[in-house]
Write a structure and sequence with these properties.
The protein is of the alpha+beta class. The chain contains 1 helix and 3 strands, in the order ββαβ.
Length: about 70
């Protein structure tokens, strides 16, 4: 196991609450990969279960924290 993500699915949006990965694999850009997989999952949930699900939220953001500032790329 090199990464794990925790999401909250609400009526109209999916929130990426946490995404944690092994720093030895930083070169794989797992934060970006995780976000893309969550978007794919959101599309499936929207199509099969909840057509009102419209928004993807990257969770909390702190620009000065290198562990989450990859979100600035979106």
């Amino acid at each position: 196991l090199v990464a794990v993500g925790v999401i909250d699915i609400l009526q109209r949006h999916l929130n990426s609450a946490y995404f944690i990965y092994d720093p030895d694999y930083k070169f794989l850009n797992l934060g970006v990969v995780g976000a893309l997989r969550e978007l794919e999952y959101m599309a499936m949930v929207r199509q099969q279960f909840n057509p009102q699900l419209r928004w993807y939220q990257l969770g909390e953001m702190c620009i000065t924290c290198p562990k989450v500032n990859y979100k600035c790329q979106y």
